[in-house]
Amino acid sequence: MLAHLLLFTKVFGVVISQAGTHLRAFISSFIHRRTYKPGSNPKNIVVVGASFAGYNAARCLVNSIPSGYRVIVIEKNSHFQFTWVLPRFCVVEGHDKKAFIPYGPFLRAPPGSHLWIKDTVEEIIPSEDGNPGGKIRVSSGEKFDFEYLVLATGSSAALPSRVGQEEKKAGMQALRDQQEKIGGAQDIVVIGGGPAGVECKGTIPEKNVTLIHSRKTLLHEGFGIKIHHTLSKALRDLGVNLILGEKPTVPTGVTVGDIQLSDGSVHFDYLIKCVGQKPNTALAKFAAPYAFSKSGHIRIKPSLQIADDEYPRIYAAGDVIDAGSLKNGRSAMQQGQVVAQNIVRAIRGKSQIEYQQKWWEGLTKLTMGLTKSVAYVTDGRAEWVIPTKSKIDLDCQQVWKFMGATPFVDPDEEKENNSVTEMEVSSYLP
Ligand SMILES: Cc1cc2nc3c(=O)[nH]c(=O)nc-3n(C[C@H](O)[C@H](O)[C@H](O)COP(=O)(O)OP(=O)(O)OC[C@H]3O[C@@H](n4cnc5c(N)ncnc54)[C@H](O)[C@@H]3O)c2cc1C
């Protein structure tokens, strides 16, 4: 009871301190907007990847960089791909486009403070002989100089965890293909009982569904026993065959088959793999081997500079780094913010601040079926599991609003529709 009271007080404290942080950021960006000038030949701070980590790093940077600097954001996707809804939108129809949030308004960037490039970074070429900065090369062949660089390339996987397509149209089609395959299957096996697997299963009605998870408890490190009990009961109530503590060989290249377990086997005519996310570290190949963890993530210093003293101006944030047990959107955003603060501090000749993952970054909402969910947080001593409700689209309009976009209006789509209408009209003109 005392532990719960303490947790409640701590959550309340975090809410107050975050409100203070946002207010301070609002005031300082208001002042920055009126004083910042890019100058005629600004120095570049390049951000590679604009998801939770990179997009927030870019937002904090454009609202705090000194005059004479600008931010270049390089992102290969046409839209912000909102991972949290992917498992659900792989099953339910009619919401696909909500997973693709238009880029731009979240930055609230003063004029001249940034350049947005939709392209893939192919190579990072750090300067040699101890000179600071370097160049990056994008797939079009163009090169850009950088004074500072933020690597926020995240991780890759297949659906239902990642879209695997750069353009919105192709991404929506990929979701529809999944809906069709899942809709046509009867015996579905979900491999992996992390948040994606639990969400995925909770959404599939009227099918035989088996969920296989390697740990004895659902989810992963950082989640406690109470949430395991809540979720496993909810899943069993939904009719799921829950198999824990099993790590079977996952078949590849087959659409129908059997999975061998230590005690028997389970048949599938559709397999959903919610495991095997890999950090996108290929661009960091210039760094020394010790700058990578055993899991293949980029090792960082507490300042979030990469753990290779040769490159003090290269920072990394988000799922691509080894920064603690939590790999989630909130942590990625916090890291993006610290990276931005440290780059500005470095430019101003100030000491670096340190990032340490905090328990409240694990605050999350987990769904248990189509409309039931729980809000969850733990400080390692007590767990708080609060039953809530959510809409079928997981209330994702809130995230659109947070990203500065009008739910679910996409200016690119509007432009496309208008140009089609103009073409149609002109084809009727004499
Ligand atoms: C199914 C699912 C559900 C989830 N649910 C939650 C949740 O409820 N709450 C929560 O907090 N977290 C959740 N997460 C975790 C969260 O999505 C990740 O932690 C977060 O996306 C990490 O953000 P990131 O910016 O580090 O990387 P990513 O989101 O992986 O993004 C990396 C970005 O870099 C770009 N990129 C990569 N390489 C290049 C290149 N060479 N050139 C240009 N651009 C490049 C990519 O296009 C991408 O936009 C969930 C994850 C999954 C998969």
From TrEMBL:
Sequence segments annotated as region (Disordered): 411-430
GO cellular component: cytoplasm
Annotated Pfam families: Pyr_redox_2
Record-linked Gene3D superfamilies: 3.50.50.100
GO molecular function: electron-transferring-flavoprotein dehydrogenase activity; flavin adenine dinucleotide binding
Domain FAD/NAD(P)-binding: 44-336
PANTHER family, per the entry: APOPTOSIS-INDUCING FACTOR 1, FAD_NAD(P)-BINDING DOMAIN-CONTAINING PROTEIN
Name the UniProt record assigns to this protein: FAD/NAD(P)-binding domain-containing protein
Organism: Penicillium cosmopolitanum
